[in-house]
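Input record (one chain):
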Amino acid sequence: MMKTLQRAHKAATSENNMNHQHRESTMFRKSLGAIGLAAALVTATAGDANAQTACAFRGSLDEAYCDADRNMVADVPSDAARQRDPSTLVFA
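The corresponding structure, as predicted from the sequence alone:
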């Protein structure tokens, strides 16, 4: 009878440990997901804020362009990495 009680106690203890480990694992995964979502939102918001503050006036131009001097023509990008230098321009 004593051996049966010891086995039952050992099985119950083992099951409780497994349930505890599963709960910890689930909580950890949920925490990582929440952290990832928060980081994505902060990054997206920061990118939008930088794009909006970089240009004082767009007029009716797309968000990719700026018209700071308000002459209704897109201005040359202030960031040299965004400027293009085509070899030939053809106007037909």
